[in-house]
Amino acid sequence: QRGTGFDFGTYHTLEDIYAELDHLASEYSFVEKIQIGQSYEKRPLYVLKFSTGGSNRPAIWLDAGIHSREWVTQASALWIANKIASDYGTDASVTSLLDHMDLFLLPVANPDGFVYTHTSNRMWRKTRSKIPGSVCYGVDPNRNWDAGFGGPGASKNPCSDSYHGPSANSEVEVRSVVDFIKSHGNFKAFLTLHSYSQLLMYPYGYKCTRPADYAELESLGRSAANAIKSLYGTTFQVGPICTTIYMAGGTTIDWTYANGVKYSFSLELRDTGRYAFLLPSSHILPTATETWPALLDIMVHVLEHPY
Amino acid sequence: LETFVGHQVLRVRTSNEEQVKQLQLLESLEHLQLDFWINPSASAVPVDVRIPAASVQSVKAFLESHGIEYSILIEDLQDVLDQEKQDMARAAQR
User: What are phi and psi of B20, to 5 degrees?
Assistant: First the structure.
């Protein structure tokens, strides 16, 4: 019987989130909690795997919270995990999706940073690795990927919030995902959740040229943005990272796209008020529920357009 | 626990590339300890920046002297954080 009393409409500690992952995995036979690595401070990196069978099926990746202070993303990811699990067998799209593809969801991509936001500095964005030769800690994990690494929009200064790190994949949180994606070898979509400013972006960030799949990504992005808008009227801007927000080297989806994952999108979830990373918990459910149709729209497109 | 008493968040709107460059210069002034929530990139995109209490006046003076428009998004960040903490405590009790 379900009933841990987990409240998807409030913010939680890492411990509570990880307990809920266990609960979801125990509740649904097709959900499994797997560890893909551990953080700099040795916290486990847990992924929920949604799989109804088959071997190395084409897969979709979803992550949240790589920038630790963006709390609404981790909270939304949990709601989404529960939604996927509970909709299988009742919702035609989710059922069809999971009958043909696997889904991997990493709800807390930067657990050290997340714990730090709870205990020491609510505005912390980066990892918590010690930078040799500097008094400062942490690397911006969305500047640490091996795609245009060290380019414009990333800082060389270890004290900066957008510090790219000493080398590409220097952060174990990034490297763990890279290793997992590479070893799996059959990811067809990669969706990463950030928050603040309502954007839906695709490659590139490190250069301002259009990707080869520009037309399809733009059209799919617009369709997903319309899906978001349909619930509460939240407006998302759509486009490549470089022209939509700013040029940024070493970003996640540039790496995934360069490594053959065509459907690579980065979402910046809502702030319809003026709260940013301090979005009140009353916004969690509206944020998650409006994001879900967009994610489903993309995932169904991926299912229907194999490559 | 780091506190954010007196920290303000400003939304800065630039009207041309020259003003964007001025903001990029501001970004490079490390002693101000600015936390750009949206970095300066193009004049069409607003820039949101958290400013520690000690730097608020300097930054506002900089913006005003260059004729750059801004508004206050968050008057005192710690007030919002305190509210969030209360909400979480209430939720935990529930």
Answer: -60, -45
Q: Which of A11, A161, A245 sits opposite B88 (nearest CB)?
A: A11
Task: Note whether A280 contacts B35, CB cutoff 8 Å.
Answer: no
Question: Which residue type, as a one-letter code, is found at position B12?
Answer: V
- Chain pair A-B, CB pairs under 8 angstroms: 66
Nearest CA in chain A to B82: A278
What are the beta bridge partners of residue B83?
A: none
Q: Do A7 and B80 touch (CB under 8 A)?
A: no
Interfacial residues of B (vs A; Cβ cutoff 8 Å): 1-2, 4, 9, 30, 35-42, 45, 48, 50, 73-74, 77, 80-81, 83-84, 87-88, 91, 94
Q: ω into residue A137 within 30 of 0, thus cis?
A: no
Q: Using CA atoms, how far apart are residues B8 and B68, in angstroms rounded to an integer? A: 17
Residue B27: φ, ψ to 5° = -60, -30
* CA atoms within 13 A of residue B29's CA, in its CB half-sphere: 13
How close A119 comes to chain B (CA, Å)? 7
Instruction: Per residue of chain A (307 residues), give pLDDT as tens.
Output: 455 689 999 999 999 999 999 999 999 999 999 999 999 999 999 999 999 999 999 999 999 999 999 999 999 999 999 999 999 999 999 999 999 999 999 999 999 999 999 999 999 999 999 999 999 999 999 999 999 999 998 999 999 999 999 999 999 999 999 999 999 999 999 999 999 999 999 999 999 999 999 999 999 999 999 999 999 999 999 999 999 988 999 999 999 999 999 999 999 999 877 788 999 999 999 999 999 999 999 999 999 999 9
ipTM given for this complex = 0.93
